[in-house]
Write the structure tokens for this entry.
Amino acid sequence: MGHRVLEASDGLTAVQIALALEPDVALVDLGLPGLDGFEVAARVRGDRRGEKIRLVAITGYGLEEYRSKAMQVGFQEYVVKPINPEDLAALLADGRSVGA
């Protein structure tokens, strides 16, 4: 889709990449090894370099308690997998929310 994509295989690496590169958007799986996605968001939000990053939780957990916790730690969006390519493109292009 024309976006630069970087990948992290664990939570600590995700935090390091996000704070070093300050991307416009970070798609974060909640089930990451090491630090889970909630902790990734909390650490990114706890650093001034992470304040402007748009954090999107991408997860298989559809429960309201997970969604609520995600919003509390700093995610702006919460998307339950699978996400279709059109919804992903819209999310990245203009910041619109996609279905849960």
About this structure: The mean pLDDT is 92. Residues 11-94 form a domain with the Rossmann fold fold (CATH 3.40.50.2300). Helices lie at 11-21, 37-45, 64-73, 85-94. The longest strand covers residues 54-59.
